[in-house]
Write a structure and sequence with these properties.
It is a single chain. By secondary structure, this protein is an alpha/beta fold. Helices cover 39% and strands 18% of the residues.
Length: 145
């Protein structure tokens, strides 16, 4: 079973970008830990990061037929991207939304997710551990399906 992990804009700066909000781990270390966790769940992961909305849409569309599920941290596009929302809806691949910070305890503009209505679930505020929780939930769902 293959799962695609997509990370959106500015997540390539983790570890040095607002560590008080996003923590001190780099995206590479988060991906590495998640790779280790994936063996526990018997799945393989592929990772994709882009600061470009169109590239994220392309990655979601290309996932059809290749991946059983998607874990996505759309970052700032969470609140603005109808295109990413529509791509997730169009491919109909079970998807979980992840955010490192608790977006609901931050600025009001972060409280609205355009992505949430088209995904299985959303995890916010658990830091890097949220990715493992997303993986656990997604794999559980996929195995029941």
């Amino acid at each position: 079973m293959k799962i695609l992990v997509i990370n959106g804009p500015n997540l390539n700066l983790l570890g040095r970008r607002e560590p008080g909000v996003y923590g001190s781990q780099t995206l590479e270390s988060i991906n590495s830990a998640l790779s280790e966790d994936s063996s526990e769940f018997g799945v393989s992961l592929s990772f994709f990061q882009s600061n470009s909305e169109g590239e994220i849409v392309d990655a979601i569309q290309k996932a059809a037929g290749e991946f059983a599920g998607i874990i996505i941290n759309p970052a700032a596009y969470t609140h603005t991207s109808v295109a990413i929302r529509d791509a997730i809806s169009a491919v109909a691949i079970p998807t979980v939304e992840v955010h490192l910070s608790n977006v609901y305890s931050r600025e009001e503009f972060r409280h609205k997710s355009l992505i949430a209505p088209v995904v299985l679930g959303q995890l916010a505020g658990f830091g890097p551990e949220g990715y493992k929780l997303a993986l656990m939930g997604l794999v559980g769902f996929l195995k029941k399906s």
